[in-house]
Amino acid sequence: MMDSLGSGGPGPKRSLRKKAGLKSYDENLMDDLIDKHLGGSMKKKNRTTQDIEKETETEAMIALSVGFPIDALLEEEIQAGVVSELDGKEQNDYIVVRNHILARWRDNVHSWLSKGQIKETVSSEYAHLISSAYDFLLYNGYINFGVSPSCMSQIPEEATEGSVIIVGAGLAGLAAARQLLSFGFKVVVLEGRNRPGGRVYTQKMGQKGNYAAVDLGGSVITGIHANPLGVLARQLSIPLHKVRDRCPLYKPDGEVIDKEIDSMIEIIFNKLLDKVTQLRQIMGGFANDISLGSVLETLRQLYAVVRSTEERQLFDWHLANLEYANAGCLTNLSAAYWDQDDPYEMGGDHCFLAGGNWRLIKALCEGVPIFYGKTVHTIKYGNDGVEVIAGDQVFQADMVLCTVPLGVLKKRAIRFEPELPVRKLAAIDRLGFGLLNKVAMVFPRVFWGEDLDTFGRLSNCSHKRGEFFLFYSYHTVSGGPVLVALVAGEAAQAFEYTDPSTLLHRVLNILRGYILQRASMCLIPYKQYVQESVAGRLFFAGEATNRQYPASMHGAFLSGLREASCILGATRSHQSNSRKLMQKNIGPSNDVLIDLFKRPDLAFGKFSFIFNPLTVDPKAMGIMRISVGNSSSENSSEKEIENSSQNSPDLPLQLYTMLSREQAHQVQLIAGEDESRLSFLLKDLGLKLMGPSSMGSIGNSLASTIASARRGRGRYRVSSKYDFSSMH
């Protein structure tokens, strides 16, 4: 029967099991390889033609491992116009230079790689190609990214490119924030939870001092060679543990599956997947609306394979593993698109990160201004910029990047004004997402075997094939004997409505029954529409927007780098089209405001006010400043604010509005905490808080008038000359 399915080898697998053809991942070996071919022979002098050819070949292989074709351009490179003519000598020379730059940075991801360093090792006749390749790689996040101190040192002290609000502090939002800061943007991140990381969350589990770090969300770095998360781990010197190939499967009664039967069914399973590929090539567009599950079952019956009970249980396990890899039921997976990301699959081993993925999140947060507990409900965008509203607070900027999960967009939990384009709304509605559940357990000891990272369990019932079908052991990286049981497919749907204690009882019975005896996915075409920016002001990131790397941590991270590049391009386009207009509407400088607010005319709580000292008219306009931030930073001195970067996460955010003396008095009289006064100011008075640059020419004129009047009057305190409490 196997011959009737074809004589080719197994097709692409969608599992973390049995990566037999891959070598173990070792950062030190990678370093040794690069150093051997590059480190000692990077100088221009004393290199033979043979040496150069060998280096070029090695650099091409490194570029290939990062995701670049050896002898061609990426579509993004073509669109960026990195060469003046395609398919000629210039393109070939560009590729050699590009690969060289990639290899140089991968040689030492701890240090910032400059153009000057590249010019030391590449002939000056290729200077234009150095500039073209370097700029493309830098601004698209292929080099000089991450969490090393050298990356932080490149963040400009003063923002030069505009302002961006990022909604969501997950991997996508944090990656974009750091990249935008390095580009010279002023950035603020609004996070609805009281923690960063989104669906990456490491929790301590255990009792009586026996604790372990368990990743309850994203947990596996899938394919290490080109994975940006591997670069972060390398920069932080965090050990990675290769998920070992051995994954024994157990029958429902606890008996180990015979290796020959196991291997035979796996081959049949992969050959059936090959047949699905052949069928969709024949059917063309007709395969779009046919589920992968129905095609596989039809083929199984057609070829009369997988007949016995044991074979069927094994086959069901592979189906469950496929549903796990796609986070969805096979009945909901398109036969046409289920494997669309296979060409982009990152090579190398799958790895666990010692101590949990929270360590990456913590490092990415450093130096990024994040405001927690800010649930965004409205995003307004237009030619003049954007407004993001969270509760009673209004944040203004040039652009906004929305990185919320697809489910939030589907629920319309955020109101967009104006409404999103019809095509984007349709894509959000039609793009699906799956479900995967986990049960994490900490035991007194590793009774399942120190040599195992994974093992599987077969089910008696096909509709329950995904219930606790695979177990991950994290004892090598978590600091304790941790097992995580996975639930996929239909079983994951039922899991949502089952009492947790019942589920725990089931999984413990499974372990007790045989182990103790030893001792969604989606229709992909719509992703590109969810990713699309709107009006050059509103951008979207997150794994749901990544066609190449969906449902993965690195997919979310890469989408953040992608959108940072898009925002930079859009900003420079705005600057070139409206430079004169921006100069006319520029607000007061931050230095001027800091100087004026050193001696406020009125101050209470978080609020400070300054007015023209030459008039006491209740209708006379002034400027109010409010310090927004955590309680430990709100009492920062003017000296600290003056001497620190506005991007410092340790200092409060200074927001401003223009109001009359009379309105200031009304705010002062509001009983209660500062939150009540802020609510009155925004809701009852209808005022908006903004940064200095958003105050425009009116704010600039008002600040200049107050500063000029103060210089004319010398040292004074308006509050000593005018009693605010006397206003009625």
**Average pLDDT rating:** 83
Spans where pLDDT lies below 50 across 5 or more residues: 7-31, 33-45, 517-528, 579-585, 644-649, 714-728
Helix content: 25-40%
Approximate shape: globular
Given the helix and strand composition, which structural class is it?
Answer: alpha/beta
**Distance, first to last CA:** 94 Å
CATH superfamily of the largest domain: FAD/NAD(P)-binding domain
Strand order of the largest sheet: 8-2-1-12-18
What is the helix tally?
Answer: 25
CATH class of the largest domain: Alpha Beta
Largest sheet: 5 strands, parallel
Radius of gyration: 30 Å
The total of beta strands comes to 22
Tell me the quaternary state.
single chain
Percentage of residues in strands = 5-15%
**CATH topology group of the largest domain:** FAD/NAD(P)-binding domain
How many domains comprise the coordinates? Answer: 4
In the CATH classification, which architecture of the largest domain applies?
Answer: 3-Layer(bba) Sandwich
InterPro entries: Amino_oxidase, FAD/NAD-bd_sf, Flavin_monoamine_oxidase, Homeodomain-like_sf, SWIRM, WH-like_DNA-bd_sf
GO molecular function, one term: methyltransferase activity
Domain SWIRM: 53-154
Keywords: Chromatin regulator, Methyltransferase, Oxidoreductase, Transferase
